Amino acid sequence: MRILRDQARIAILAAALAGGSTLAAQEAAPPEPDGETLDLNHIGLAVSDLEASTAFFVETLGFKPAGGNPEYPANFVFNGGLFVTLWQVTDPETAVPFDRKNNVGLHHMAINVRDLATLHALHRRFLDHPRVTVEFGPEFLGNGPTTHMMIRDPSGLRLEFIVSRGRMSAEEQALPNPRTRD
Q1: What is the pTM of this model?
Q2: Which homologous superfamily is 40-95 in?
Q3: Which of 24, 35, 63, 82 has minimal Cβ neighbours within 10 Å of its Cβ?
């Protein structure tokens, strides 16, 4: 069942990236697997402040510590579905800051959120966090009702938090766009 859910997410993302209707992709049946690879095992992120980034994932997002590698150094966190490895850069002072438009590599990481209430609670938590920058608060993805927001974590990584239409009640799906950007 988990693989089918993951395949449905991939179909939605592929439709959005191809300029298709994300709504249609969300309502479509999950595709049959046709590749030899399955789904994301984990994501490894290079961070400028290992302790601050680890604390962000654990204290702000509710991940649990899952080990690490003190020689690297690295910390690992897990939320029951997503395994993230955080790797300290060698020299934070000379590390090239994240630039989604000019550097090859991670553009952003999107994390599914349980429901709209949780998304809004996370938004308030991010606004109060001294080392988190909110790029934009909750708003529709495209024409909605899928709702997302984007932040920069304490190391400057770009993280998206998203509640898909399928996780919303009929009343929530009928709400107007909560867009926070001009």
Answers
A1: 0.74
A2: 2,3-Dihydroxybiphenyl 1,2-Dioxygenase, domain 1 (3.10.180.10)
A3: 35
